[in-house]
Amino acid sequence: MRASPMPTRALHHGSVKAASPAAGWCGRHRQPAAATLATRAAAWPPHAAAPATGCGAGGADVSGAAAPSAMLWRRGVLSAAAAAAAAPWLGFSRAVAAVGSVAAGLPAIAPALIRPELAPDQSAYDPTDPELRAAAALLQDALAAPGVALEEARWGEVIERYGSLDRNWVPDVVGRAYGNRGNARARQGRLAEALADYGEAARLCPWSVDPVLNRGVALEAMGRFEDAAADYRAVLAAAPDDPSAWNNLGNANAGLGRWGEARECFGRAVALAPAFSFAAANEALALWATGEREPAIRRMRSLLRRYSDFDDVRAALAAALWADGREGDAETMWARVEDSRYRDVVWLKERRRWPPGLVEAMTALLELRSV
């Protein structure tokens, strides 16, 4: 049975199977609206392929309602470029194209400082508190919402109902609601609103890496690569073994044309999570961009042996072979690419962000001319 390059989801942008090239994602995400903001759980298993659900330390047992520990952060991991390539339904990435022009008018982003030592002791929450029980149930309703608009409304209800309540669990619960509402807004292409929500989530929950990581994804989608890179570095300062943050930092560096640094970041992501297939694909692109063309081609072939439907890698290999003068092999490879977006060189350059030389090679392949 062939491994699928499409993201699978365990209802979160959640534990995606490691065997999927969608493994470049990490978090919880709803199909088909989800596309570039892959969502994932706070503790991203190295084998997970997509944004996974998760929450942190275990909390009190609230019978009949979800415990605080079950109030999931949903994480947007794979950066805009990788998620755009992996998702055939292109919900968020197309929305980003429509709103990208607002990026220049947005305020500067203050540097993030994540402080894991401030994480609350959830065992101190009173499991008999009726307000906590009601809040936990409402969070679960939001996670189970059948559509992104209703999901956003339910997160807003949590914020409105509990934001001014004086309880020790309020920053934890309301901060999560802000972060998840940011994800819902980002999936609708409303990135400025998403940034505001991520900022508030980070303020209320300064111990959590997820709102900062998700904010980086949104900034990257808007072309604010330096700001995105700063957020990813903040995540890595608190969680240096986070493979998604390394992958995303690689994408931000690639967006800035720093392919050598990008290669190092992708390599770190793959070393930490060998099944993170999209990071491996990104590393192959960075190898090619830094002049290691034959190793890049070997890496692409290896990935296709594992994930034969991985169109991103197959298209890149076709372009790389064409650039290398192996035109017959390139045409054979290209004939098996089913995703029509790879015919759009503007998309390749601006959304998927292939190395310029590889975009030129694909252009030549499409025009049947030598590079």
From TrEMBL:
Pfam families: TPR_16, TPR_2. Keywords: Repeat, TPR repeat. TPR repeats lie at residues 243-276. InterPro entries: TPR-like_helical_dom_sf, TPR_2, TPR_rpt, Ycf3. This is Uncharacterized protein. It comes from Raphidocelis subcapitata.
